[in-house]
Amino acid sequence: MRLRYRFRLYPDHAQRGALARAFGCARVVFNDAVRAREDARAAGRPFPKDGELSTRLITRAKQTEARSWLGEVSAVVLQQSLRDAETAYKNFFASLRGERRGRRLGAPRFKSRKDARQSIRFTANARWSITGSGRLNLPKIGAVKVKWSRTLPATPTSVTVIKDAAGRYFASFVIDTGPAADAARMSGSDHSVGIDLGLTHFAILDDGTKIDSPRFLRRAEKKVKKAQREMSRKQKGSKNREKARLKVARAHARVADARREFHHQLSTRLIRENQAIGVEDLAVNGLARTRLAKSVHDAGWSQFVAMLAYKAERYGRTLIKIGRFVPASRTCSYCDHVDGLKPLHIREWTCPACGVLLDRDVNSARNVKKAAGLAASACGAPIRPEPVLAQRNEAGSHGLPPEACAA
Fold it and tell me: Which residue in the list 32, 206, 298, 361 is annotated as catalytic?
């Protein structure tokens, strides 16, 4: 399995200048590749091949006066920029043909020097290395100080140097991990869990455990708003506005980092303690268009579920996503009776069939576990609930009579 390990870099003044030149050269080569393809499309000619672009935009361009400064950076950085442009076009055409899953992609666009994020990539043939003192030695940049927060489990195949919107530098290493080594790091478990994700409580487990939502953005909202107001008062294009923009970016970066750390810790804990996990496949894009949009984005459900997915694959666990239309919050987890719609302010309800008082969130987590097939019967075998007929007032039937729905 291929993973990324990211570490903070602290380049000195000269190294920041060298990195800025490398970012600029990679951006220029990428834009030249996009322009060459656009010119060929406008003229009705076939797209130039990768080898032709490499010769024209890198090898010959270095020999010209207008592009002689391309020789100041590693050639591997420029080649990887061309490869990024080629990948962008492949993904664009695959999206047009419907061969690529996910949202539809647009055509590659020109990169700007004012983009918030800049990056360059060094592969193994670039001869980068990690020195004995723990520094990252990059060609034509030098030995950059690294803050090692953990050890690398294997030898990296490539490293990407990133500068984010807050002006911070990171080194992202690509690691190929082995299934045997990953299995040895995580002991086996015979437990399973159903998870209901929410806003008041971030996660509710089927055993009744409720994990509070940290609400990182809500807690930092006052500082973020103040920084944004200060930036709005600065003249566009001035140095003071750039300083204010950095303050805003750093405030958002602190929120994002704290949220990511919380997701990592919780997802690792759940993967370590359980062999199988059931979670609901939430329609985050739809919920983000409601009045709860800020709270939904603050919770970061998609990032958390994505972490559960890749960690489950890495450590041999099972992650089951149930359909978003399963009536988990309206079904009694004791007798499987499906009740009517429940507004969000109703946190407890009594089942009219068996009379049990149900906590909405805990009941939903138990139904998620059942729908995932992780609940056990009296003999210990996993069970799945029987399909339940849709009610007339459920979404999709639009109040039609039964004979019309059957037709």
Answer: 361
